[in-house]
Amino acid sequence: MKRATIGDVAAVAGVSVATVSRVLNGGAVKEATAAKVWAAVDRLDYSPNALTKSIFAGRSSTIGVVIDDLTSPFYLGLMRGIDEVADANDSLVMFASTFRHAGSGAAQIRTMNEQRVRGLIVTTVEATDDRTRRMAAGGTPCVVVARSVQDPPPRLHSVALDNRAAGRLMAEHLISCGRRSVGVITSGGRPSQHGRTEGLRQGLAEAGLELPGDAVTSVDDNEQVSAAVGALLEHRTSVDAIVCLTGRRTVAVHSALTSRGLAIPDDIGFLTMDDFAWAPALGVTVIGQPSHRMGQKAAELIVENPGEAVQLTFEPELIARTSCGESG
Amino acid sequence: MKRATIGDVAAVAGVSVATVSRVLNGGAVKEATAAKVWAAVDRLDYSPNALTKSIFAGRSSTIGVVIDDLTSPFYLGLMRGIDEVADANDSLVMFASTFRHAGSGAAQIRTMNEQRVRGLIVTTVEATDDRTRRMAAGGTPCVVVARSVQDPPPRLHSVALDNRAAGRLMAEHLISCGRRSVGVITSGGRPSQHGRTEGLRQGLAEAGLELPGDAVTSVDDNEQVSAAVGALLEHRTSVDAIVCLTGRRTVAVHSALTSRGLAIPDDIGFLTMDDFAWAPALGVTVIGQPSHRMGQKAAELIVENPGEAVQLTFEPELIARTSCGESG
DNA sequence: CTGAAAGCGCTAACAA
DNA sequence: TTGTTAGCGCTTTCAG
User: Fold this and answer.
1) CA A192, A194, A195: angle at the middle one, nearest 5?
2) Which of A55, B57, B61, B108 is most buried by its number of CB atoms within 10 A?
3) Of chain A residues 224-263, which have a beta carbon within 7 Å of strand D?
4) d(CA B245, CA B188)
5) How are beta strands A285-288 and A317-319 bridged, if at all?
6) What is the mean pLDDT of residues B47-67?
7) How many CB atoms lie within 10 A of CB B130?
8) Where exactly does CATH 3.40.50.2300 map onto chain A?
């Protein structure tokens, strides 16, 4: 029942533990000795203890990821990207989500630090900044996703979308589809959403269109969406397009529209963030983020561990379908 | 740059390492001493090494999860459930996916074993059976998801849907909607799909309806779906409903239908596995699995670590919407 | 090429 | 209440 240790293997093989260690990790050993060791390994079903190993390395080979909502298509793509390069580098991914806790993930980050993860990828809010900074200072490369860091210390990187560009892309497309008055749904106070709003506002302004403050509504969860959309539509009857600034709310906003009997795009235009599996079928036009590549890059930053802070910005992409009407 | 160790803390606080260990883990220490220690911890930004700790416990406090496709709504729900109870038990989730590799996850399971995970949850195919059995034999509780294990050794549990019941539920609903000839899309050779097919066949048979072998088509990926659906429809012109036996293919099958100009449910009925966010909006009737509860249960089996093997079966639930037409 | 011995950072008796 | 002393399972000098 008790697990075999390297000592047991050594005993069975009739060699020293040092020798066993060497054949396991590819040191110089005589063919014949190695064979004896492997036989013992087999017989005892020996599995080296990676935990003990990492004591010497000072850290584990695991990449930590703290995400606040796996449900969103963006994070799913991100995870796949991360997992992919982790796998290619014989790393595992240690995952913790925070969507239940208001605490914003400080606890998770602490735990990851205690686990001596090789690096950390975080998507949670600024409250965690301090912890992340200290981890980076302690030598663990950290990557912050979907948010840039002001004045980053050496090992604190970031991977983010050019949110203003995303906003502008939205404005351009809406305008080219003849929309004149947009209503916006944002979610919580994430900085990325500010960028998008600003980009949108600017893009609209360049075409002489306004985005008044009361055309922007923030919702905290899916339950609020229907009421928020309703209020927006009633308050501003001129609105001819609804823009959803976060992929997390796409379903809810879309349902809010259709369940009011509004036809998309005839009665109202609809534009949202993040491509998703059903979008082609539904004809929903989106601004796509390269979430998969972003995940890969984040993980690569961990693996390559550059000395300076690197801030990567990715370009959004308009994936035009039919939900805003005919373009041009 | 070098991390502080418990020894450093002891030195700064002017006490022994044992004392530091005690205040960190809640032993009996004098108020004043504890204060000194905490001060030192603070000053050095000390973070205890969880890896070293688990040497003594013999295993880490991490729950390992090997999943083959995070993209599927079922696995997402499962993950949430797992993460939830892991979190409640101060565990982290170590995640590895296998969807790139043909290798079916043997490597991932080995790594998890080396990481001395507290328990393992696997969703990959039978090829991994041996490894899982050995892990269980070695004392690590393992839970196999969506598949039952024949003749399970002590610590090898399973959490699965009653697939025959799911099939029967499908049959019942289709019949009550007046469908007489169904076409089936399955994916790969997963045993769960056999159960569903059998249940469906039985349920149909009880109503005097047949499910001939050529009405069942298996596809390996989304690219094959359109052709497969086309072939099925052309070969069996009587088909008035398409059943998709895996949530993983829902989008592709649905698109295959609509892109052929078929209206759901008027031209053809559509029924699939696993509820998903857009299903209400699309009116897609599904057989739901309690994926979230299944994840929770799987994680609880790890945490509670019962001596015998336990096999949990969950009941599927029909979530009737409009895609099969009017029922009754 | 191989073994003995000294740790890695921490916990757990056992004394004091 | 505290400190001393063994280890945990492994890697890594340093001799042989």
Assistant:
1) 65
2) B108
3) none
4) 10
5) antiparallel
6) 94
7) 11
8) 63-161+291-315, 163-289
Mean pLDDT of B34-51: 96
CA angle B252, B257, B260 (to 5 degrees): 120
Q: What are phi and psi of B188, to 5 degrees?
A: 60, -175
Task: From chain B, pick out residues whose CB is under 8 angstroms from the CB of A50.
Answer: 111, 114-116
- The CATH code belonging to domain B63-161+291-315 is 3.40.50.2300
Instruction: Give Cα separations from B300 to B89, B156, B305 (angstroms).
Output: 9, 13, 8
**Pairs of CB atoms within 8 A across A/B:** 130
Chain B residues in contact with A281 (beta carbon < 8 A): 251, 254-255, 258, 282
pLDDT single digits (tens) B228-273: 999 999 999 999 999 999 999 999 999 999 999 999 999 999 999 9
Helix or strand run (H / E) with residue A27: none
Phi/psi region, residue B58 (left: phi>0; alpha: psi -120 to 50; beta: rest), is: left
On chain B, the residues whose CB falls within 8 A of the CB of A68 are none
| DSSP 8-state assignment for residue B139 | T
Q: Please check whether residue A156 is in contact with residue A145, taking contact to mean a CB–CB distance below 8 angstroms.
A: no
- In terms of Cα–Cα distance, which of B316, B245, B251 is closest to B277? B251
Instruction: Assess whether pLDDT exceeds 80 at residue B12.
Output: yes
Closest Cα in chain B, distance from residue A92 (Å)? 6
Q: Is the CB of B58 under 7 A from strand D?
A: yes
Which residues sit opposite A121 in a β-bridge? A65, A143
**CA A65/CA A75 separation, integer angstroms:** 11
Contact A309, A155 (CB under 8 A): yes
First to last CA, chain B: 72
In angstroms, rounded to a whole number, what is the distance separating the alpha carbons of residues A278 and A205?
32
Query: What value does the mean pLDDT take over residues B297-321?
Result: 97
Q: How far from chain centre, in Å, is Cα B36?
A: 47
| Per-residue model confidence (pLDDT) at position A102 | 59
Q: Write A203-208 long-range contacts (CB < 8 A, 24+).
A: A203/A167, A203/A168, A203/A169, A203/A170, A203/A171, A203/A172, A203/A175, A204/A171, A204/A174, A204/A175, A206/A171, A207/A171, A207/A175
- Average pLDDT over chain B reads 93
| Interchain contact, B51 vs A70, CB within 8 Å | no
pLDDT for residue B120 is more than 80: yes
Instruction: Nearest by CB to B96, from A60, A92, A116: name it.
Output: A92
- The greatest distance separating any two alpha carbons of chain B, rounded to the nearest whole angstrom, comes to 86
Q: Is the CB of B21 under 7 A from strand C?
A: yes
Residue-averaged pLDDT of chain A: 93
Please judge whether A54 and B51 are an interchain contact, meaning their C-beta atoms are less than 8 angstroms apart: yes
Residue A188 is predicted with a pLDDT of 75
Angle between helices A73-88 and A291-304 (to 10 degrees): 40
Please provide the CATH number assigned to the domain covering A163-289.
3.40.50.2300
- How many angstroms separate the CA atoms of B119 and B140, rounded? 5
For strand C, which nucleotides have at least one atom less than 7 Å from a protein CB?
A: 1-5, 7-13
Q: Test A95 with B93 for CB contact under 8 angstroms.
A: yes
Helix (H) or strand (E) holding A269: strand A269-273
